[in-house]
Specification:
Strand order of the largest sheet: 11-12-15-16-17-18-19-20
Largest sheet: 8 strands, parallel, barrel
Structural class: alpha/beta
CATH superfamily of one domain: Glycosidases
Distance between the termini: 42 Å
Helix content: 10-25%
């Protein structure tokens, strides 16, 4: 195992024509020991400051980038204790007194406020040295440390089909620390739980307080909606307009508190998936307010909205005009579109993600708006992450309306050849649409009810690996599985959907509150899709974290999903097994998951009336004359000729 990363470090020196600046923010990274910086004026008219260390915290006015060199840059390895680079009247000496590091290159972009220092760390060993900025007699010394990599870091196991992800929007789950609800100086300065688009005060402490609840439910991983700083004037609660890529939003907690939450989650045997956004940032990010170069963003002159038609990425007939508008257009006006074709932008984003993996101990990443970004850069990113962490997993948000389009984005897809996205996991949005209707309709042989599922799964031939599909009933951007409270009275729909979701191929995701039948319709507004979890705030009239305060109906739903989730843990037939299914007959859909000598057979009634099935039809998947139904815990006799199925019922038989 390598002691450190094989990297080319990029130090960004910012030169601002302004007065004295100061910063008391301590560094918080595995790349350098904690310390405070004090910026000073050099030469009277200029303030020169550099941030930076390998894998270092980036704040609004300071940053550094580092990353493995696997691109076309030729790396020269050698020992050179001091190299002077003159930039105007400023002399940069780096590395100073380093045994293995040297300056590779210095890059100046259009803005005079930025200089990039490329440090060759190909053969670097853990050590400390200084970066020196000098102008005349004025000198600034920046300590730089390369730390030893954590033991076993590259061996971490990412989320996979043995896992079930629990999706949480941190602002809406639980408020464990009201003191951080409002942070002086941040642009959105109030909390208002009556407004759907306002901040509500949820935070890391609130999630940490309820880790036992999440663990007992039976999920094995938590996916957090974005937690990085969103210092936007409004709508910042959702997290998708980043204003600082190296700092979590202080209204959730600190970087250290996020790491503590990850560690506590790991201690309970659960993994952590972090939401990231490479396609765009927030319009209050210093990248946008003080742009390093004109080509740092797409459509830099004015706001041009994307067409959202990302099918142009794979459409063989797509016009260049349509493709540019879809990929380079801005998602919304407050989210300017980053130009990943700019090599500095690309390296910054790639390095940032690896920094978070290493610094906080992540097990996975969910990449927002994946098809809206540059294909080649995103492919490179996935590849470089996999080179550092071979079993790490990234799921891309591939919100497209058909499985062919989604299959294009999966790693090694023949549909994309000779290109390769290197994206291991993609999101199966079409299956969500299928499930929305399948458990309501009376099943016919062709296109209603369970026939929808049978026909859709029969098209899995387009996927390179169906086990690497994220599957879900809903998420933070869609209507919930139940659109209103009245619909939740039909618990059979819920039970069938949960049973199918947790036993079919793929990696299931459960949106927080599904277990207590939370309902919402997207037509009410996205904020209502993200309602507060009842009991997450002091003074809530009902605390749904406690069984005694849930309704009998909610407890029935909770106990049902909990039983299947905990049974699913460690079940190799579900996690690794083959899938064999039978065309729905007499309104009943039957399928098998099998791994070695273990198998699970699922029987779903897609009818509102009682049905009888001929067991001879399923002889090839019924190795014994009886099996235990894990839902009812009853033994089901299979030695007769037929089996009677109650309306909308479910069997999960274990052999």
């Amino acid at each position: 195992m390598r002691k450190i990363y094989r990297i080319l470090a990029i130090v960004l020196v910012c030169i601002i024509t302004a007065g004295i600046l100061s910063c008391n923010e301590p560094y918080r990274s595995f790349g350098v020991s904690p310390r405070s910086l004090e910026f000073k004026v050099l030469g009277g008219s200029q303030t020169v400051y550099v941030v930076g260390d390998n894998w270092e915290l980036i704040t609004e006015d300071e940053w550094i980038q580092t990353k493995v060199v696997n691109d076309k840059i030729t790396v020269t390895v050698g020992i050179n204790n001091t190299k002077k680079v003159r930039h105007g009247s400023i002399i940069i000496k780096t590395p100073y007194d380093s045994k293995t590091v040297k300056v590779k290159d210095v890059v100046k972009l259009e803005s005079s406020n930025y200089i990039f220092l490329y440090l060759d760390l190909t053969n670097a060993q853990p050590e400390k040295f200084d970066i020196i900025l000098q102008q005349g007699k004025d000198k600034k010394v920046v300590p730089y440390e390369i730390k030893e990599r954590k033991a076993g870091s590259s061996d971490r196991v990412g989320f996979n089909s043995s896992d079930v992800l629990y999706l949480i929007m941190p602002d809406r789950f639980a408020n464990g620390d009201p003191s951080n609800d409002v942070i002086p100086g941040m642009r959105e300065s109030k909390v208002d739980r009556d407004q759907q688009y306002a901040r509500h005060g949820g935070d890391f402490k609130g999630i940490s307080n309820h880790l036992d609840y999440i663990h007992d439910l039976g999920v094995t991983a938590i996916w957090f909606n974005p937690v990085l700083e969103n210092d936007m004037p409004e709508g910042s609660y959702h997290g998708y307009a980043t204003t600082d890529y190296y700092k979590v939003d202080r209204r959730f907690g600190s970087n250290e508190e996020f790491v503590d939450l990850v560690n506590k989650t790991h201690a309970k045997g659960m993994k952590v998936v972090m939401d990231m956004i490479f396609n765009h940032c927030g319009s209050e990010h210093f990248f946008f307010t003080d742009r390093p170069s004109k080509d740092w963003f797409n459509y830099p002159e004015k706001y041009v909205q994307t067409s959202y038609k990302t099918t142009t990425q794979h459409d063989p007939y797509a016009s260049a005009t349509d493709k540019k508008l879809a990929i380079d257009g801005w998602f919304v006006e407050s989210m300017p579109d980053l130009n990943q074709r700019n090599p500095h932008v690309a390296k910054y984003l790639i390095q940032n993600s690896i920094w978070w993996i290493e610094y906080s101990g992540l097990d996975g990443i969910r990449q927002d708006t994946h098809p809206y970004a540059d294909f080649d850069m995103m492919s490179r990113w996935c590849k470089e992450v996999a080179e550092e962490y071979p079993d790490f997993n990234i799921v891309g948000e591939t919100w497209l309306n058909n499985n062919v389009a989604i299959a294009f984005w999966q790693k090694d897809s023949k549909l994309a050849a000779p290109r390769n996205s290197n994206l291991r996991c993609v999101m199966d949005f079409p299956l969500m649409g299928v499930m929305e209707n399948a458990f309501d309709e009376e099943t016919n042989p062709w296109d209603k009810g369970m026939a929808r599922i049978y026909e859709y799964l029969g098209q899995d031939i387009v996927y390179e690996n169906p086990l690497e599909l994220l599957i879900f009933l809903d998420n933070h951007d869609t209507s919930r599985f139940y659109r209103n409270i009245e619909q939740t009275s039909n618990l059979n729909r819920y039970k069938q959907a949960i049973a199918f979701l947790l036993t079919t191929r793929g990696i299931p995701e459960i949106y927080y509150g599904t277990e207590i039948l939370m309902a919402a319709d997207k037509s009410e507004g996205d904020g209502y899709l993200r309602r507060n979890f009842p009991g997450g705030w002091s003074g809530d009239p009902v605390n749904a974290f406690n069984a005694s305060e849930r309704t009998a109906h909610q407890n029935e739903a909770f106990d049902y999903i909990k039983k299947i989730l905990n049974w699913r843990k460690g079940n190799e037939a579900i996690a690794k097994g083959t899938l064999k299914h039978f065309a729905p007959t007499n309104g009943v859909y039957v399928y098998e998951r099998k791994y070695n000598d273990k198998s699970v057979v699922v029987i779903l009634s897609g009818s509102d009336s009682e049905k009888t099935i001929d067991l001879a039809t399923y002889k090839e998947i019924l190795p014994k004359n009886q099996a235990k139904d894990i839902i009812s815990e009853n033994t089901i006799n299979l030695d007769g000729q037929t089996l009677t199925i109650k309306p909308r019922s479910v069997f999960i038989l274990e052999f």
